[in-house]
Amino acid sequence: MAFVSKLPSISSSSSSVTQLRKPNSFNTHPFNSIHCASCSSTSPFTEKHSIRRYERDNWIYKNQLDQSSYCPLPPDSNSVRDYDIALQLPELKKLLQVLREKRESGGPGAGDGGRGPGNVFLVGTGPGDPELLTVKAMRVIQNADLLLYDRLVSDDVLNLVGDDAKLLYVGKTAGYHSRTQEEIHELLLNFAEAGATVVRLKGGDPLVFGRGGEEMDFLQQQGIQVKVIPGITAASGIAAELGIPLTHRGVANSVRFLTGHSRKGGSDPLFVAANAADPDSTLVVYMGLSTLPSLVLKLIHHGLAPDTPAAAVERGTTPQQHVVLAELKDLAEKITSAQLVSPTLIIIGKVVALSPLWPYSSKERSILVEAK
């Protein structure tokens, strides 16, 4: 097993692993210091109690922050959500009214001559590194009126948003949904109908475990045109960062993406283990930390070798990236020891041993390929 922080330099031996922090070429915006209960976080992603979230969304919380430098949060998740919505609702109504007035007057930001709905973009922001954004995504982000963003959109990406745009957090974590999916649908619809250019920011790719298809379907049924801007999904972005080819001639002839959690009432994602236990395929598991121990047992039970190479990557492509490399049978234990937290991506398959980070020599990796 190897435990790595950020991407080490490429070496023929795991014993010479070193740390490398990718320089950030994007300047962050200055902000005032405030004190917020349970706000501290080292994550580059937007957490529900992140102090960065409250500073970034200060168009909503401005009055409260002006009155006091302290912003206590309710103790339970339901209260937090109700508290957020209560604060946001007046400002959302004001913003909607401004947009409607612009649309009716035909002024700047009114859309097509003040007629018709605005544009909705579903934008993938990639696994976290802002330099992995597409040029089109950058342009849309910088010209939006309103951006609804998820928890897995990195802070560096949000720093690229235009100064006049409004940001609204609609992220979800286990036990805490700042907005229900139905409320997100209605927000997108209402602002689009008011003539706004609305951007829905999603980590990774919006159509890979991002529920982008649901939002697109809802809006299209209401007559709203939706444009999708793909992003680099975590599987390919993080695998590339680690030097893991998801497919490789003679080693893996296919790749399969699996979610560790299914919709309530849907099929247990672990039931696919019988078909996923393919030694000639690569398995990538999204959102699978809590179900990984059971998944590992099922994969081994259905024939996948216990010594199959595997990797778990927390906060991939960011300076806070942590990597655990281990054989499949040891992966869950090593993840627990390393104290990895969400978001963590899991890659299982012989291609993991082709990474320069895998604790075998280059010669041994060559033998693996030639054996096929």
Q: Secondary-structure element sequence?
A: EHHHEHEHEEEHEHEHEHEHEEHEH
Name the beta content range: 15-25%
Distance between the termini: 24 Å
Shape: elongated
Unreliable stretches: 3-41, 63-74, 109-114
In round numbers, the mean pLDDT is 76
Secondary structure tally: strands: 13
Strand order of the largest sheet: 1-12-11-13-10-9
Helix percent reads 25-40%
Radius of gyration: 22 Å
Decide which structural class fits the backbone. alpha/beta
Biggest β-sheet strands, sense, barrel: 6 strands, mixed
Count of alpha and pi helical runs: 12
How would you characterize the overall build of this protein?
This protein has helices at 51-56, 58-67, 77-105, 135-142, 155-158, 181-193, 212-221, 234-242, 273-276, 292-301, 328-338, 362-370; strands at 2-5, 120-124, 146-149, 166-169, 172-173, 176-177, 198-202, 226-229, 254-259, 281-286, 309-314, 322-327, 344-348. With 372 residues, it is an alpha/beta fold. A 6-stranded mixed beta sheet has the order 1-12-11-13-10-9, sandwiched between helices. Strands 4-3-7-2-8 form a 5-stranded parallel beta sheet, sandwiched between helices. Strands 5-6 form a two-stranded antiparallel ribbon. The chain is elongated, with a radius of gyration of 22 Å. The chain starts with a strand and ends with a helix. The model is unreliable at 3-41, 63-74 and 109-114 (pLDDT under 50).
